[in-house]
MOSC domain-containing protein (Pseudomonas fragi), 268 residues
Amino acid sequence: MLHLSALYRFPLKSGKGESLPQARLDKLGLEGDRRWMLVDEASGRFLTQRADPKMSQLSALWNATGGLTLSAQGFEALDVAVPDADTDLRGVTIWRDSLRVPDAGDAAADWLSRFVEKPVRLVHVPLPRARTTEAGYGRDDDQVAFADGYPLLLIGQASLDDISHKVGRPLDMLRFRPNLVIEGSEAFAEDGWKRIRIGDVEFRVVKSCSRCILTTVDPQTGVRDEQREPLATLMTYRKQENGTMFGQNLVNDGNGVLEVGMPVTILE
C-alpha cells in the first residue's frame, strides 16, 4: 500500500532540513518551509548551496516563538524573531523573480555573515508577499515562498533506491531535499501521477523537478562529490529536454495536517 514514509521541512532555503512526524499545510506548502532566505547584502540576490556548500551545515530551525533558531558548529545559537511583514523591506531576487520582503535585522545578518564569510542579510516572506508559480504550470493563484518554483517536492523511496543502486552506494534522501517521501510504488511511478490524496488533502502534480549540482553536496559533511555523483549517473538515464529530472513538484489544494504513515491515494 502506498503511504507517506517521511516528511521534511527546510525553514531556511538551502539550510539543513528537519525530519517531522507530522506537519501542517498552508497556502505555501508545509507550514514554515523555505520561508527564510539568505541574500547577498549588496545585490539582494539569493544564496544557496550551489555556490556555498557550507550552507548545508547551517541549522536554521523553527523555535517555540514561531521564529528561527540559528546554530552551527563553533557558533553560539541565535534566536531570530519573525520580522514585521511591512517594515524594513528589502529588494531581493530569486531566479527571475524580484520582490520586496522584510529583513530580519542586524544581529541575524552579522551572525550569518560570519558563518558564510561574506556580507549577507536574512529575509523572511509572509504570505501576502509570496511569489506566484511559473506561468503555464498549475493555476494563476498558486503561490510559493522561497522554494525554487513550487510549494512541495515529492520523491518515491523506490526512485532513490534505484539511483543508489546505480551509483553503487546508499544515498541520503536529503541530497534531493523533498518535503514528501512515498513508499510502496515502483521506481519513478510518480512521473505518471497527476493528482494524489494524502489524508484529507488533495495535491496536483504540476511539473518534474530538474536537478543540479546541489545534489552532489553531502548533506552530512557539506563536501561536494568529486565525481559529481549522483548527478552524473542521473544524467545517463533521467536527462530530458528541460533538464535531468528526479522528483515531482506539487501544489496542495487546501490546508490540513499530514502525518508519517498516512495512506496515499492516486486520483489521476
Q: What stands out?
A: The radius of gyration is 18 Å. The mean pLDDT is 95.
